[in-house]
Amino acid sequence: MIDKSLAEFLDGLFGTDSGWSVVGDHAANIYRREPRFTLDVDLLVALGSRSMEEAAAAFVERDWTVRAMDPEGWLLRVSHPEFGHMNVIASETSYQDEALMRARCVDLGDGLTAP
Predict the structure, then answer these.
(1) d(CA 2, CA 58)
(2) Please, what are the domains in the chain?
(3) What is the distance between the alpha carbons of residues 111 and 115, in angstroms, rounded to a whole number?
(4) Nearest Cα to 75, choosing from 91, 90, 95, 86?
(5) Strands 20-23 and 106-109
(6) How confident is the model over 68-78, as a mean pLDDT?
(7) In degrees rounded to 5, what are phi and psi of residue 55?
(8) How far is CA 78 from CA 41, 75, 82, 86, 101, in A?
(9) pLDDT digit string, tens, across residues 14-33
(10) Alpha-carbon distance 66 to 60, whole Å?
(11) Read out DSSP for 19-36?
């Protein structure tokens, strides 16, 4: 689901230093005895000085379909024919900010690591 080109895009959009992290079932599978299967990836992102609308526009420029999932704009559902579905969650609390700062990179294979 996350390959080198997608990781580079996310690094460019949200930054390489605690700017984004895989969360949810995919992240929890690292610690589980038996993995839980899911069809999408959940990303927690630090928007920095950009808005979620700007992030959405960047996804659209890369051929993603974007749908706002809440009226306040903190959650996007993005879909791509090659990469599948992702939920993009804006970090808006100190707990979420701390989770991003504590994220550690995990080897995904083929020389790719992702937080």
Answers:
(1) 17
(2) 4-101 (3.30.460.10)
(3) 14
(4) 90
(5) unpaired
(6) 91
(7) -65, -45
(8) 10, 10, 12, 5, 24
(9) 876 778 888 876 676 666 77
(10) 7
(11) SEEEETHHHHTTT-SSPP
